[in-house]
Amino acid sequence: MIDPLELIRENLRALKPYSSARSEFSGQASIYLDANENSFGSLISAEQAASFGGGNYNRYPDPLHKKVRTRIAELKRVPVETIFLGSGSDEAIDLLFRLFCVPGRDAVLITPPTYGMYEVSADINDVRILRAPLTANFRLDWGSLEKGFLESPRMVFLCSPNNPTGNALDSTLVDRVLREYPGIVVVDEAYIDFCPEKSLLPRLAEFPNLVILQTLSKAWGLAGLRVGMAFASPGVVDYLNRIKPPYNISSLVQDATLSALERVDEKERLVAAILSERRRLERELGKSRLVETIYPSDANFLLLRTVDGTRIYKRLLERGIVVRDRSKVFLCDRSLRITVGTPAENTALIDAMRVLEREFT
Ligand SMILES: *Cc1c(COP(=O)(O)O)cnc(C)c1O
Fold this sequence. Notes:
This protein is of the alpha/beta class and 361 residues long. The protein has helices at 10-13, 21-24, 46-51, 66-76, 89-100, 117-124, 142-149, 171-180, 234-243, 251-260, 264-285, 309-318, 343-359; strands at residues 83-86, 107-110, 128-131, 155-159, 184-188, 210-215, 228-231, 291-294, 301-306, 324-325, 335-339.
């Protein structure tokens, strides 16, 4: 069994974290004169504060987000010590690089085409990128993964369902990576709520080297709040908490998140509506002469191979519809990534594609 703590950067094992006023004293008192806050109050009125479900915005937030993590633990049925919260999963990705990789020395393995932030975070942290490309139909390729492992990457990033391709990765191969590769395995499940494949969360305890990323930005509709989750063994979560900015999630966001997490049924309704619209888009766009292939999607978007991705992108833009041109991305020639919109938005897109069809003769 791998001990992930042995993979932590040498200098961080000895790090003395910043000790904030709120972490040194976390009990109850009646007078707080320890944090140089504004004791008189804040410029958010009491009524406004109440409408966010909270208050006391003159005070620093809970650095360990205990209430939110407790609610997530309940929802996801995992121990609270296995939950880390970041300002978006993008913060968690960056912190994982800082925790496990020595700049200028280490490498990580990614499986292109995949989410762009892994490479950006690697570049920012001066960490080398190794690539194990997906096959032409976007499946993991064990042969190229094995070749990558030979260079001893510190982490491997698997995105399932994958962005920009939309498909879930083969769970047998993900399992095999977890069993055979002796480093940190990050499985990014940003789109798991839209996917029939199961999350790896129930298997967290089985693999101490597994880190699962999820987010409130997609199914929960809270991209503007910036709340990302990393689920990992308690030791790894503890280190992530030591190296994060102490107050990475504001009180306002913690309050709003708590009230949103009460509305699980509403989230399920949104997911069902998105999936039903995704099926309609697949059906309607499938009829277009401009569309060569619609790749099977387990997410809230579709990747389409078209006759000319960039030209269609520009024409749609002229009609006020912005999609993502992915035609320069590895294995995604002529392809567009289209997020499922509201019924009216999707109808506008379908209509615009019909008009373009006449133009492309
Ligand atoms: C959208 C997305 C995220 C979410 O990032 P946040 O910072 O939580 O908004 C993470 N991973 C992938 C693959 C994504 O597509």
